[in-house]
Amino acid sequence: MIHISIDTNRPLPIYQQLAAQITADIQQGVLPVGTKLPTVRALAAENGLAVGTVRQAYDALVRQGYIVMNQGRGTFVRSVVPIHPGGLRGPGSRKEQALLAIDRALGEILDLGLSPREARIFFDLKLRELEGMGPVVKIGVTDCNPEALAEIKKQIAPLPKVEVFCYPLDDVLLSPAALPSNLDLLVSTATHAAQLADVLGGAHPMATVVMSLSLDTAAGLARLGPDRKVGILCDSLRFSELILGGCARYCDLDTPPQVILWGQEKSLKEALAGLDTLLLPTAYKDLCPEALLGELETYLEQHRSVIYHYEMDQGSLLSLTRQVQELLNAELEAM
Hints:
Elements: H1 14-27, E1 36-37, H2 40-47, H3 51-64, E2 67-70, E3 74-77, H4 94-111, H5 116-131, E4 137-143, H6 146-156, E5 162-168, H7 169-174, E6 185-189, H8 190-200, E7 206-209, E8 211-213, H9 215-222, E9 230-234, H10 237-250, E10 258-261, H11 268-271, E11 277-281, H12 284-287, H13 290-302, E12 304-308, E13 310-312, H14 314-334
Parallel strand pairs: 4-5, 4-6, 6-7, 9-10, 9-11, 11-12
Antiparallel strand pairs: 1-3, 2-3, 8-13
Helix pairs in contact: 1-3, 2-3, 5-14
């Protein structure tokens, strides 16, 4: 419980008195970084204050950088000094300033629900990136369709000190020896993990990731009315089957979606005639043949579209990040 003392005889507005007392508790360590604060309503009820007054105080603390309010998770202490547009200011040596900056960064990372151990992984990887030190981890990605390959690569590529290469699953299964021998890690989805393990026989270390439909995409599909004339435009039948499955789950269309593979179309204008909504993979600009891209962009300017986006779950990303760090550490020890 936060103990608040309000003096109504003071000229200072009540919300400012409240914000000042919470600020003092944060600066003095009474409320350490990461402390979860009461909700606006709870703090108001505990101290006999108006909900609007407490909300004003919290808003002021957010603007000053002392707290962060996360929808659905709560309000947390973020820093021990305010954030200024021009950077850190205030008394203290460079060491003290650096420690305060680290406190702030840790507060933000812990607000994301990561553990201290997971935070250390990301700090180490980022430091390696900034210092330009150490080797690079070569990651191969394989899956059964180019759309999924592009999705997985896009989400792995931002990891520091990695190079990502894509290999169609059919090619890997047909000729496993075609995979470069210097790959440090081969990544695929859980759907194909067992099949790959049988074919490769341990020739490459493997990592399995779980991909799921994003909430934005699910919501976009759910908003499609039953009278919509929907087209699915992509590169492969396999990915179109995934989209059809998503439509069956989230849509209630009077007419089934029409599947269009741009590699088989000479004119998108003719193929898309009569449709009012288009479903596309995330990387459609990279995958669509250049000769058809202009027609596609013109169509999208005039019609509704839903980007069909798959996300890697946080557990998969954290596990993959740990594996990358372990590979980097092993390489550094061998140098």
